[in-house]
Amino acid sequence: MVNKNGQATVEFILLIPFFITIFLIVSQLGYIVYLQNNIKQLSREAARIISTTNSNDLGINLINQSKMAGEELSLNININPYQDTQRKVGDMLKVGISLNYSGFGDLIKKLFGKTLLIYSESCMRMECE
Q: 41-47: long-range contacts (C-beta < 8 A, 24 or more apart)?
């Protein structure tokens, strides 16, 4: 007669790294979606503020004071046209925000040798000069 005590423990020990890996991958993907949504919202708000006030400083301050800037993420901001003297009422303003994300503990960079570019661009019609 074979003693089967401990069989479930051995199976659990063999499978737990697989479950932990799956959990970490899903949480990483969820965090990337969270970052994308926040960057999209920031670009919309910055475009709205700049198009209604014609002030790049107010839009950039909004982005820098956001929760994402507090997470020590380096956001790259592109405003086109940049000069407020080049913008007229009715012109289209583009605000692009990009983030090079390397994952928790640079995991994506260590595994693939590259960073993940998360980018969002919003356009809005100028409402004031």
A: 42/66, 42/68, 42/75, 42/97, 42/120, 43/95, 43/96, 43/97, 43/120, 43/121, 43/122, 44/122, 46/77, 46/79, 46/95, 46/97, 46/122, 47/93, 47/94, 47/95, 47/122, 47/123, 47/124
